[in-house]
Specification:
Blueprint (H helix, E strand, L loop, with lengths): L6 E4 L4 H12 L5 E4 L2 H11 L3 E3 L5 H8 L4 E4 L4 H15 L2 E4 L4 H9 L1 H7 L2 E3 L4 H16 L5 E7 L7 H13 L2 E4 L2 E4 L7 E4 L4 E6 L3 H10 L3 E6 L6 H13 L3 H8 L11 E8 L4 E9 L2 H18 L4 E2 L2 H5 L10 E5 L3 E2 L11
Parallel strand pairs: 1-2, 1-4, 2-3, 4-5, 5-6, 6-15, 7-12
Antiparallel strand pairs: 7-13, 8-9, 10-11, 11-12, 13-14, 14-16, 14-17
């Protein structure tokens, strides 16, 4: 049997991968850097003084061979919907634990589909250890502890970053192509993108948001099995004009040139960037608990969270597919720098008010 040691960052030459590698070094770790391009990975590895190798995820045999020597791989390369599944399959064969920086709904569904095989092989699959599901998962743990009989769960994200690359654009494009989703009665159902907008009481101020089909939607279900779950994002504020624009864009995405242009959109460096998350659990009696999380720039949070989450998963891996909050616990974010959490006390709110268009 091949002896395993250490862990790997695949996609280490990307922006997020480099940040995680630097954070790992600061924590005394020496991850193996990997990616498809030998030239690009070697350049980053030499800069950071870390070992490296190159292989293509399209070559299953080469991927399995590369993974046999490491305990865990962190996938930091996108588009995640195209790369996560072959990496998961190779990890299961190589008996190597898997995690990633993803927050795409199809990837979480793919992880669940591989749960039985992963358990049989003793492999932990923990998608989504970046900002989104780490932040909402921690808040979900806290509000559900206050309302343990909750039958409705709502989460929201306001993501602010000084950098966004092609993977960010591809993730947004994938959500538009798939269309909206919410969970009702334990089942994922379609919901028009841009519909059901509402004001979210983030810690600093209220912001309008509407339901988005991110991985948080599935992660919250994996962790709690609450039947009705909605995840909101401020990137979609909602409204008739935005809904009309999304409908037109979805019809145009069959044209390759438009699809490539939309998927390659990059944001430049921004100014003051602060991310926010919110969660609310409500039961049938109208009792509810709310929690808010504030932090700094999104990629900085992701790097700090990912490097520390890898250490937790490696220390006590649990075979099967799991949400990050299930493995890390609600208090995990308390160990991260620049994080502030506020809770509101459980209170009786009477009958839950209905709002036209609210999912």
């Amino acid at each position: 049997m091949t002896m395993k040691s250490g862990w790997m960052i695949y996609g280490a030459n990307g922006y997020a991968g480099r940040l995680v590698a630097r954070e790992a070094i600061a924590l005394g770790e020496r991850p193996l850097l990997a990616g498809r391009s030998a030239e690009k990975v070697r350049r980053v590895a030499e800069e950071l003084g870390l070992p490296w190798l190159a292989f293509d995820l399209g070559d299953h045999a080469a991927t399995v061979a590369a993974l046999r020597g490491v305990e865990l791989v962190l996938l930091a390369a996108g588009p995640f919907d195209g790369l996560a599944q072959p990496m998961m399959d190779a990890c299961i064969e190589a008996r190597t634990h898997f995690t990633d920086l993803d927050n795409e709904l199809p990837v979480f569904r793919a992880a669940e589909e591989r749960d039985a095989r992963a358990r049989e092989r003793g492999v932990a699959i923990v998608p989504g250890i970046g900002f989104g599901t780490i932040a909402t998962g921690s808040l979900v743990k806290r509000v559900v502890a206050e309302v343990p009989d909750a039958n409705r769960l709502e989460c929201a994200l306001h993501i602010a970053s000084t950098h966004a690359g092609a993977a960010t654009g591809q993730s947004g494009l994938a959500a538009v192509r798939m269309g909206g989703r919410v969970r009702r009665g334990g089942r994922l159902v379609e919901h028009p993108l841009g519909a059901g907008g509402r004001e979210i009481p983030f810690a600093d101020r209220g912001r309008r948001a509407s339901p988005i089909p991110t991985g948080d939607l599935e992660a919250a279900w994996m962790d709690t099995h609450i039947p009705d779950i909605v995840v909101y994002g401020t990137a979609l504020s909602g409204g008739l004009l935005q809904r009309a624009g999304i409908a037109i864009l979805r019809r145009l995405l069959w044209i390759g040139a438009i699809r490539r242009a939309v998927g390659s959109v990059r944001e430049g460096a921004g100014g003051d960037a602060h991310c926010q998350a919110w969660a609310c659990a409500t039961n049938a009696r109208g009792e509810k608990a709310e929690a808010c999380l504030e932090t700094g720039e999104g990629f900085a949070f992701t790097a700090a969270a990912a490097a520390r989450a890898v250490a937790v998963i490696r220390r006590a891996p649990t075979a099967g597919a799991h949400a990050a909050a299930t493995v890390l616990g609600g208090a995990f974010v308390d160990s991260l720098p620049d994080v502030r959490i506020t809770m509101s006390h459980k209170r009786a709110a009477g009958a839950v008010a209905s709002q036209e268009g609210t999912p």
